[in-house]
Automatic annotation (TrEMBL):
The keyword ATP-binding does not apply. It comes from the Bacteria. It is a multi-pass membrane protein. It is found in: Membrane. Belongs to the sodium:solute symporter (SSF) (TC 2.A.21) family. This is Na+:solute symporter. The chain crosses the membrane at residues 6-25, 45-66, 78-97, 127-147, 153-175, 297-318, 338-359, 388-410, 416-436, 443-463, 475-494, 544-566, 572-593. PROSITE patterns: NA_SOLUT_SYMP_3. Coiled coil: none annotated. InterPro entries: Na/Glc_symporter_sf, Na/solute_symporter. Pfam families: SSF. Keywords: Membrane, Transmembrane, Transmembrane helix.
Length: 603
């Protein structure tokens, strides 16, 4: 499908605005590495929250959701909906702790929490492992989606699409730093959301679909509309719902949904003015990401089943498309070809916005690891600020090139998503417990990281080739079990973190919880606080945080289902879910108010 001049105008204007923002903030971003990576730590919650949402709205997300809906129905989305539990845990417990740590990157946390050479090694290795290897894999999935979009909508090859989009993204990311990324994210989020909602409205009303009510009642969607899979069919219920909601959310590390917070989410929280802004940004992100944004993608995914019921129909409709990228995730860009000119240009610009917002964030985040946690910490500690900014800009370019090269060998967004889940399987519990149990040490994390990676390589390369008999959820459970046993064993066989380091950590962070009881007593004996009634220890903080997490999760899921039931025209259930959601949100904000008083008293 060819774009007309009005479509190209929308795309061109978007590119011009993005580049202008990068140039505008280039001078302020270049003052220091902290300005480049943290925007001076004075960002408001609303801008940070929107940036988090914009980052997770990547070019591969609509493709991923479409593939999930086509294969497993609406209920298949629990594979990522379950991470709301992780997100709310971060909102009500970890966001304030991260902001109080005052680290520049979340990897700096290792030498704040652990001691000795093991802590230094962990920081250096994770800088390369996450900032380069893992980060490149994530960006490659986004690049793959962009390549599919460009192939279907613009007739461009993989390489042409990646070069055009990649060059523009690298320019404004390397010039404007995090502040440029945040402001661009704000504009990109508005364009991306408007484009996806508008596109869904037009596509659902296509003659081939017949309107919302006709689509919902179509026999072709039988079994695809349920929010929760049939519990009597264990072959479906267990992998699609039970595993994600019972195990995956707390025991799997995945970017943007890390147990205990991490990555670019932590980078945004560390950029906030204070703890309250860090919490507010993360809360806004989780509400918008899970309750409001999924439905336009889901509706287009359902509509695609009426227009392109199988892969053969996609291949027939797009014979010129490279056969290596034909998959269910291709159905999303395929449906966009039905949009009228004018709107098509806006939607293409919105998809470019989604691509650029995600890639720019990952480039800035990954280069922050390279600069702070590897180059400055281990290569050249005396490096001046301008040199650090230069290294950050060079690493931005290198990461983009590596991501584009790796994208050429990927075939499916869902395939990449499952590989990433497997690599992080079994490590999530470490990231939760390290804040609340003194016994976790650097060797716990090193073991979890190494073992989970080895297990992932085995299952995705060796076992898959010779014994292709396990389902994805079975691989996940086995990986979690092996990794967890390994790191727990090593935790108890190795020496704990030096007591002085633990005492200093508790004084700075004041995490609370019975897992630190031994350290709080140590501080109490030194007469720095009175353990039972003292100024630091607050028994209500953790229970309040967990209550906020549960009510927040309940309120967002209720809102998610309410929107769905309204779309399905099931008025009674829609009204019930709406009322439950409103009441839950009211209770959640009351809990947040109580927590804010505690945070303010701890300053």
């Amino acid at each position: 499908m060819e774009l007309e001049w009005i479509d190209w105008l929308s795309v061109a204007l978007f590119f011009i605005v993005s580049l202008a923002i990068g140039v505008w903030f280039a001078k302020s971003a270049g003052k220091s590495a902290k300005d480049f990576f943290l925007s001076g730590r004075n960002m408001p919650w609303w801008l940070l929250g929107i940036s988090m949402v914009a980052t997770t709205f990547s070019a591969d997300t609509p493709n991923l959701v479409t593939e999930i809906v086509r294969k497993d129905g609406v209920a298949g989305n629990w594979t990522w909906w379950a991470f709301l539990l992780t997100g709310m845990l971060t909102v009500f417990i970890y966001a304030a702790l991260w902001r109080k740590s005052e680290v520049v990157t979340d990897l700096e946390f290792y030498e704040l929490r652990y001691s000795g050479k093991a802590a230094a090694f962990l920081r250096a290795f994770r800088a390369v492992y996450l900032g380069v290897f893992f980060n490149v894999m994530i960006m490659a999935t986004v690049c793959l989606a962009a390549a599919k979009m460009g192939n279907v909508l613009l007739g461009l090859s993989k390489g042409e699409t990646l070069i055009i989009a990649g060059v523009v993204t690298v320019i404004y990311s390397s010039l404007g730093g995090l502040k440029g990324v945040l402001v661009t994210d704000f504009i990109q989020f508005i364009i991306a959301m408007a484009g996806s909602v508008w596109a869904a409205m037009i596509i659902v009303d296509l003659p081939e679909v017949g309107g919302l009510s006709n689509m919902i009642s179509s026999p072709a969607l039988t079994g695809k509309l349920d929010f929760i899979p049939d519990p009597t069919d264990l072959n479906v219920f267990v992998p699609l719902f039970l595993i994600p909601i019972a195990v995956q959310w707390w025991n799997v590390w995945y970017p943007g949904a890390e147990p205990g917070g991490g990555g670019y989410i932590v980078q945004r929280m560390l950029s906030a003015k204070d703890e309250n802004n860090a919490v507010g940004a993360t809360l806004f992100f989780n509400i918008t990401h899970y309750a409001l944004r999924p439905w336009p993608w889901i509706l287009i995914g359902l509509a695609s089943l009426l227009v392109y019921p199988d892969l053969a129909s996609l291949q027939t409709a797009f014979p010129e498309v490279d056969k290596s990228i034909i998959g269910h995730d291709l159905a999303y860009p395929a449906m966009l070809t039905y949009l009228p000119h004018g709107l098509l240009g806006v939607v293409v610009a919105s998809l470019i916005a989604a691509f650029m917002s995600t890639i720019s964030t990952h480039l800035n985040w990954g280069s922050s690891y390279v600069v702070y946690d590897f180059y400055q910490r281990f290569i050249k500690p005396e490096a001046e600020e301008k040199e650090l900014v230069l290294v950050g800009r060079i690493s931005t370019v290198v990461l983009m090139v590596l991501a584009m090269l790796f994208a050429l060998v990927l075939e499916s967004a869902l395939e990449a998503f499952q590989i990433l889940l497997t690599i992080g399987a079994g490590t999530g519990l470490i990231f939760i417990l390290r804040w609340f149990w003194w016994r976790i040490n650097a060797w716990s994390e090193i073991t979890g990281m190494v073992v989970s990676f080895i297990v992932a390589i085995y299952f995705n390369v060796i076992h898959k080739k010779f014994f292709p008999d396990l389902e994805a959820y079975e691989v996940l459970l086995i990986s979690i079990a092996i990794t967890t046993v390994a790191w727990l064993t090593v935790t108890f066989l190795t020496r704990p973190t030096d007591e002085e380091k633990l005492v200093n950590f508790v004084k700075k962070i004041n995490p609370g919880g019975i897992g630190w009881k031994r350290i709080y007593r140590k501080i109490s004996l030194a007469k720095e606080i009175h353990f039972q009634t003292g100024e630091m220890y607050n028994k209500s903080k953790i229970p309040l945080g967990l209550a906020g997490m549960l009510t927040g999760t309940f309120s967002v899921y209720s809102a998610l289902f309410a929107v769905g039931y309204w779309l399905y025209s099931e008025v009674y259930l829609a009204s019930l879910m709406t009322v439950i959601s409103v009441l839950s949100f009211f209770l959640m904000f009351r809990i947040w108010g109580a927590l804010r008083k505690i945070y303010n008293s701890e300053r």
